[in-house]
Design goal:
Elements lengths: L10 H17 L7 H28 L3 H21 L1 H6 L5 H6 L2 H14 L3 E5 L6 E5 L5 E6 L25 E6 L6 H10 L2 E4 L1 H9 L3 H8 L1
Parallel strand pairs: 3-4, 4-5
Antiparallel strand pairs: 1-2, 2-3
Length: about 220
Protein backbone atom coordinates (compact mmCIF):
# COMPACT_ATOMS: atom_id res chain seq x y z
CA UNK A 1 0.00 0.00 0.00
CA UNK A 2 1.25 3.45 -0.86
CA UNK A 3 2.68 5.49 2.03
CA UNK A 4 0.39 8.36 3.02
CA UNK A 5 1.32 11.99 3.48
CA UNK A 6 -0.59 14.20 5.93
CA UNK A 7 -0.47 17.15 3.55
CA UNK A 8 -1.14 16.00 0.02
CA UNK A 9 -2.07 12.34 -0.20
CA UNK A 10 -0.05 9.36 -1.40
CA UNK A 11 3.55 9.90 -2.53
CA UNK A 12 2.82 8.16 -5.80
CA UNK A 13 0.09 10.69 -6.61
CA UNK A 14 2.45 13.60 -5.96
CA UNK A 15 5.01 12.09 -8.32
CA UNK A 16 2.39 11.61 -10.99
CA UNK A 17 1.26 15.19 -10.58
CA UNK A 18 4.83 16.43 -10.88
CA UNK A 19 5.40 14.39 -14.04
CA UNK A 20 2.22 15.81 -15.52
CA UNK A 21 3.26 19.36 -14.59
CA UNK A 22 6.67 18.86 -16.21
CA UNK A 23 5.03 17.44 -19.32
CA UNK A 24 2.76 20.48 -19.61
CA UNK A 25 5.63 22.89 -19.10
CA UNK A 26 7.70 21.17 -21.77
CA UNK A 27 4.75 21.20 -24.16
CA UNK A 28 4.50 24.96 -23.63
CA UNK A 29 8.26 25.47 -24.02
CA UNK A 30 8.61 26.74 -20.42
CA UNK A 31 10.56 23.95 -18.76
CA UNK A 32 13.82 24.42 -20.58
CA UNK A 33 15.86 22.05 -22.76
CA UNK A 34 16.55 18.44 -21.87
CA UNK A 35 20.05 17.22 -21.13
CA UNK A 36 20.42 15.48 -24.48
CA UNK A 37 19.54 18.76 -26.21
CA UNK A 38 22.31 20.71 -24.47
CA UNK A 39 24.86 17.90 -24.53
CA UNK A 40 26.42 18.85 -27.93
CA UNK A 41 26.94 22.46 -26.80
CA UNK A 42 28.35 21.26 -23.48
CA UNK A 43 30.80 18.93 -25.23
CA UNK A 44 31.87 21.77 -27.52
CA UNK A 45 32.48 24.12 -24.58
CA UNK A 46 34.54 21.47 -22.77
CA UNK A 47 36.57 20.78 -25.92
CA UNK A 48 37.27 24.50 -26.44
CA UNK A 49 38.32 24.98 -22.81
CA UNK A 50 40.62 21.94 -22.97
CA UNK A 51 42.14 23.19 -26.22
CA UNK A 52 42.78 26.65 -24.76
CA UNK A 53 44.38 25.20 -21.63
CA UNK A 54 46.56 22.88 -23.70
CA UNK A 55 47.62 25.79 -25.92
CA UNK A 56 48.53 27.94 -22.92
CA UNK A 57 50.49 25.07 -21.37
CA UNK A 58 52.40 24.53 -24.60
CA UNK A 59 53.13 28.25 -24.85
CA UNK A 60 54.40 28.30 -21.26
CA UNK A 61 56.78 25.43 -21.92
CA UNK A 62 57.96 26.90 -25.23
CA UNK A 63 58.25 30.61 -24.42
CA UNK A 64 57.57 31.21 -20.75
CA UNK A 65 55.02 32.96 -18.61
CA UNK A 66 54.33 35.68 -21.21
CA UNK A 67 52.17 33.42 -23.38
CA UNK A 68 49.74 32.31 -20.61
CA UNK A 69 49.39 35.88 -19.36
CA UNK A 70 48.71 37.19 -22.86
CA UNK A 71 46.22 34.40 -23.49
CA UNK A 72 44.32 35.02 -20.26
CA UNK A 73 44.16 38.76 -20.96
CA UNK A 74 42.89 38.10 -24.48
CA UNK A 75 40.21 35.68 -23.26
CA UNK A 76 39.04 38.05 -20.51
CA UNK A 77 38.93 40.94 -22.99
CA UNK A 78 36.94 38.90 -25.52
CA UNK A 79 34.44 37.81 -22.86
CA UNK A 80 34.06 41.37 -21.59
CA UNK A 81 33.52 42.67 -25.14
CA UNK A 82 30.98 39.95 -25.86
CA UNK A 83 29.05 40.68 -22.66
CA UNK A 84 29.11 44.41 -23.40
CA UNK A 85 27.76 43.89 -26.89
CA UNK A 86 25.02 41.64 -25.51
CA UNK A 87 23.71 44.41 -23.27
CA UNK A 88 20.71 45.97 -25.05
CA UNK A 89 21.76 49.60 -24.62
CA UNK A 90 25.36 49.06 -25.68
CA UNK A 91 24.34 46.79 -28.54
CA UNK A 92 21.92 49.36 -29.94
CA UNK A 93 24.42 52.21 -29.62
CA UNK A 94 26.84 50.44 -31.93
CA UNK A 95 24.11 49.70 -34.48
CA UNK A 96 22.74 46.23 -33.75
CA UNK A 97 19.00 45.77 -33.27
CA UNK A 98 16.87 42.70 -32.69
CA UNK A 99 13.47 42.36 -34.40
CA UNK A 100 11.79 43.18 -31.08
CA UNK A 101 13.93 46.31 -30.75
CA UNK A 102 12.78 47.52 -34.15
CA UNK A 103 9.12 46.87 -33.41
CA UNK A 104 9.24 49.01 -30.27
CA UNK A 105 10.58 52.11 -32.07
CA UNK A 106 8.54 55.07 -33.23
CA UNK A 107 9.50 56.96 -36.38
CA UNK A 108 12.05 59.13 -34.58
CA UNK A 109 13.57 56.11 -32.88
CA UNK A 110 13.72 54.25 -36.18
CA UNK A 111 15.56 57.17 -37.77
CA UNK A 112 18.12 57.10 -34.94
CA UNK A 113 18.49 53.32 -35.35
CA UNK A 114 19.12 53.70 -39.09
CA UNK A 115 21.70 56.42 -38.42
CA UNK A 116 23.52 54.10 -36.02
CA UNK A 117 23.41 51.18 -38.46
CA UNK A 118 24.83 53.40 -41.20
CA UNK A 119 27.68 54.48 -38.93
CA UNK A 120 28.28 50.83 -38.11
CA UNK A 121 28.68 50.17 -41.85
CA UNK A 122 31.20 53.00 -42.23
CA UNK A 123 28.98 55.85 -43.48
CA UNK A 124 29.24 59.45 -42.35
CA UNK A 125 25.76 60.31 -41.16
CA UNK A 126 23.66 63.39 -40.52
CA UNK A 127 20.34 62.86 -38.77
CA UNK A 128 17.69 65.50 -39.54
CA UNK A 129 14.91 65.15 -36.96
CA UNK A 130 11.34 66.24 -37.72
CA UNK A 131 8.04 65.66 -35.88
CA UNK A 132 6.52 63.55 -38.64
CA UNK A 133 9.17 62.92 -41.31
CA UNK A 134 12.75 62.65 -40.10
CA UNK A 135 15.49 62.13 -42.66
CA UNK A 136 18.95 60.65 -42.56
CA UNK A 137 21.62 61.78 -45.00
CA UNK A 138 24.82 59.85 -45.39
CA UNK A 139 27.87 59.45 -47.57
CA UNK A 140 30.69 56.94 -47.65
CA UNK A 141 34.33 56.98 -48.68
CA UNK A 142 33.40 55.92 -52.24
CA UNK A 143 31.46 59.14 -52.77
CA UNK A 144 28.00 57.55 -52.58
CA UNK A 145 25.28 59.77 -51.12
CA UNK A 146 22.07 58.56 -49.50
CA UNK A 147 18.89 60.28 -48.43
CA UNK A 148 16.85 57.99 -46.17
CA UNK A 149 13.15 58.60 -45.54
CA UNK A 150 10.73 56.78 -43.25
CA UNK A 151 7.22 56.31 -44.52
CA UNK A 152 4.47 53.72 -44.42
CA UNK A 153 4.31 53.84 -48.24
CA UNK A 154 6.76 55.03 -50.82
CA UNK A 155 4.31 56.68 -53.20
CA UNK A 156 3.28 60.25 -52.26
CA UNK A 157 -0.32 60.92 -51.34
CA UNK A 158 -2.47 62.81 -53.88
CA UNK A 159 -2.35 66.07 -51.90
CA UNK A 160 1.41 66.27 -51.40
CA UNK A 161 4.46 66.81 -53.53
CA UNK A 162 6.78 63.88 -54.21
CA UNK A 163 9.55 63.93 -51.58
CA UNK A 164 12.78 65.08 -53.20
CA UNK A 165 15.94 65.27 -51.12
CA UNK A 166 17.83 68.54 -51.06
CA UNK A 167 21.00 68.19 -53.08
CA UNK A 168 24.17 67.58 -51.10
CA UNK A 169 26.84 70.23 -51.36
CA UNK A 170 28.75 69.72 -54.59
CA UNK A 171 26.61 66.74 -55.57
CA UNK A 172 24.07 66.66 -58.39
CA UNK A 173 20.54 65.66 -57.40
CA UNK A 174 20.58 62.78 -59.88
CA UNK A 175 23.56 61.23 -58.07
CA UNK A 176 21.77 60.92 -54.72
CA UNK A 177 20.20 57.55 -53.97
CA UNK A 178 16.99 57.68 -51.99
CA UNK A 179 16.15 54.87 -49.59
CA UNK A 180 12.65 54.49 -48.14
CA UNK A 181 12.53 52.44 -44.93
CA UNK A 182 9.34 50.64 -43.92
CA UNK A 183 9.00 48.09 -41.12
CA UNK A 184 6.18 46.34 -42.95
CA UNK A 185 5.80 45.17 -46.54
CA UNK A 186 5.62 47.50 -49.52
CA UNK A 187 2.64 47.20 -51.82
CA UNK A 188 3.10 46.33 -55.47
CA UNK A 189 2.32 49.92 -56.50
CA UNK A 190 5.16 51.16 -54.24
CA UNK A 191 7.61 48.79 -55.88
CA UNK A 192 6.47 49.88 -59.35
CA UNK A 193 6.75 53.55 -58.38
CA UNK A 194 10.31 53.07 -57.09
CA UNK A 195 11.34 51.28 -60.26
CA UNK A 196 9.90 54.05 -62.43
CA UNK A 197 11.69 56.66 -60.34
CA UNK A 198 15.01 54.88 -60.87
CA UNK A 199 16.82 56.56 -57.96
CA UNK A 200 14.80 55.07 -55.10
CA UNK A 201 15.36 51.83 -53.21
CA UNK A 202 12.80 50.31 -50.85
CA UNK A 203 13.92 48.66 -47.63
CA UNK A 204 11.08 46.59 -46.15
CA UNK A 205 10.74 44.94 -42.76
CA UNK A 206 12.57 41.75 -43.73
CA UNK A 207 15.59 43.63 -45.06
CA UNK A 208 15.51 45.99 -42.08
CA UNK A 209 15.71 43.06 -39.65
CA UNK A 210 18.67 41.63 -41.54
CA UNK A 211 20.35 45.02 -41.47
CA UNK A 212 19.78 45.33 -37.74
CA UNK A 213 21.30 41.86 -37.22
CA UNK A 214 24.56 42.96 -38.86
CA UNK A 215 24.23 42.55 -42.62
CA UNK A 216 25.61 45.52 -44.55
CA UNK A 217 23.32 47.95 -46.30
CA UNK A 218 25.21 47.64 -49.60
CA UNK A 219 24.36 43.95 -49.82
CA UNK A 220 20.68 44.60 -49.15
CA UNK A 221 20.47 47.41 -51.72
CA UNK A 222 22.21 45.27 -54.32
CA UNK A 223 19.59 42.54 -53.80
CA UNK A 224 16.73 45.05 -53.98
CA UNK A 225 18.11 46.71 -57.08
Amino acid sequence: MARLSWSSGPVQSRRAQRREAVRLLRAGGLYGPRFREVLPALVLVVAVVCAVVALLAWGYRAVGIAIPITGVVAVVGAVALWMRRRRPGARRRIGYYTPDDLLELDTQGLALAVARMLRRDGWRVRLIPAPDRPHVRARNTDGCHLDVAFRPVAEPLPDEEPPRPRAHRGKADDDILRVVVHRGTFAARDVQWARRDGRTRLLDGSALRRWGAGEELGVLLAEEG
